Amino acid sequence: xxxFIERLTAYVHWALFLLLEVTSGFLLFQHxxxxxxxxxxxxxxxxxxxxxxxxxxxxFLRMPAENAALVRxxxxxxxxxxxxxxxxxxxxxxxxxSQLDSLTxxxxxxxxxxxxxxxxxxxxxxxxxxxMLVINAGSEDGVAPEMGVVSGTGVVGIVSAVTPHHALVxxxxxxxxxxxxxxxxxxxxxxxxxxxxxPLRAYMDDVPRHAHIKKGAVxxxxxxxxxxxxxxxxxxxxxxxxxxxxxxxELEILLSTDLANIRHVAVINNHDKAELDSLYQx
Amino acid sequence: MITTxxxxxxxxxxxxxxxVLVLDQVHPWGYGAPxxxxxxxxxxxxxTSRTEALLWGFGTGFIADIFAGTSGISSAALTFIAFLQxxxxxxxxxxxxxxxxRPSFSTMGRWNYLQFIxxxxxxxxxxxxALEGFSYFFxxxxxxSMGVSYAASLLLIILVxxxxxxxx
Lengths: 282, 168
Hints:
The complex is a heterodimer.
Chain A: H1 2-10, H2 12-30, H3 45-91, H4 97-102, H5 105-112, E1 114-123, E2 130-135, E3 148-151, E4 154-162, E5 167-174, E6 179-183, E7 189-193, E8 201-208, E9 218-221, E10 233-242, E11 248-255, E12 264-270, H6 272-281
Antiparallel strand pairs in A: 1-2, 1-12, 2-5, 3-4, 3-12, 4-5, 6-7, 6-9, 7-8, 8-11, 9-10, 10-11
Chain B: H1 2-21, H2 38-42, H3 50-68, H4 73-92, H5 105-108, H6 110-132, H7 139-164
């Protein structure tokens, strides 16, 4: 008996080794179900707090680049606004510039049915296969799972889990991410997916072969899912390839948002979403 | 006994802090970041029981995972090398070594210790990047990532070990 116990203790490290590796494996695979695992992620209280302090320091250092991007985006929007305004006037004779200007910002925001919740990224990565980021807005700020996250330059990701003050966001640079998108000016749609590798390179699949596509065409959200409103910038077509089954095109997309270098984002709370969701469930 | 454990914990926390706050933000040419955590397992002294080594490896990996969002990957990789560290160390130190010898350039000899680090770090990186790249589309990219991270980690660990032990 004594001998037996001695022999057993000599092998106890094997059992412990297997137990710990199985535990690691469990953590690795249950992480795919993001909702249940928020306490084992960067969004838990301690980790989020440490990352928040770190990000406060870093945001001072990155302020100039961030500002420059916002200014560029602002100018682009102003130009677009200008074009649309003239288009609107030429379309309808009884609508004048003064009438358009009298629409206050508030009315415009109200009519779009979307609320923006501003937040800062406090933890981020781009080098993994499944990248997640953490923002400093949570359920108490009105953030809920499945809401879209955008930056000044385009789509960033989708909220996957929330704590009271933080939210875990599935970045578009995640193998599970799939964002419904279209080519601007057409109704050809597909799904934007990331397959690992370079953080600015993603793919749009399911584009029919009869579609006329040019390099440089803009890819934007199509608003099918209500996570993102239609028309939000995703990137531009960099390369046109055949899909693996040869039945459709696969477009290589140069993403407009450099996820390795962003800090300020906004979460989109689309009030139509609940309505659409209930429709899908019926 | 207690002071040794506290000292080692402080050492582990310092390395973890550097990993989480500095290294996780660095991506040389957009590829894998250097990983410093294996050093915690590498420097476990001679005579550490395999059970104890495993607990150190898993504990360190678990914390690193939580902060880096790599749930399970670092814990699996560090547990793996923690399992192999004690027998490998016994194999590579001189026969007549003192009982609780702490691996370093001065105690093991420059070339011996370098080999010891290189082997354990390679095993760690193989497991880490295999798990991370599960169903990865670009095999080439993951191999480059592993290579870049391996080289960067190795250089960094050698640097840290020289700073820690400046005589050699």
